Amino acid sequence: IVFLPRTEDDPQRRRPDIKKAKDLLDWEPKTALEEGLAKTIQYFQTRLACDDR
């Protein structure tokens, strides 16, 4: 992983707004934030372990 400096237009804080998806597509998230983060972490841990082989 290589960390590069942020560009000038890179937001300091990301807060996605899903209102448009809710309004236009009648979409609602089905995975809670904590569950989604846990699954994401597990995925990358597994992926990185496989890449080390």
Based on secondary structure, the structural category is mainly alpha
Largest sheet: none
Give the % helix: 40-55%
The N- and C-terminal alpha carbons lie at a distance of 17 Å
Strand/helix succession? HH
**Average pLDDT level:** 91
Low-confidence stretches: none
Structure annotation, total helices: 2
- Output the radius of gyration: 16 Å
**Proportion of residues in extended strands:** under 5%
Number of separate strands = 0
Description:
The protein has 53 residues and is mainly α. The protein has helices at 19-25, 33-51. It is flat and about 45 Å long. The two termini are 17 Å apart. The mean pLDDT is 91.
Core attributes:
53 residues, flat, 2 helices, mainly alpha
Walk me through the topology.
Elements: H1 19-25, H2 33-51
Q: What's a concise summary of this model?
A:
By secondary structure, this protein is mainly α.
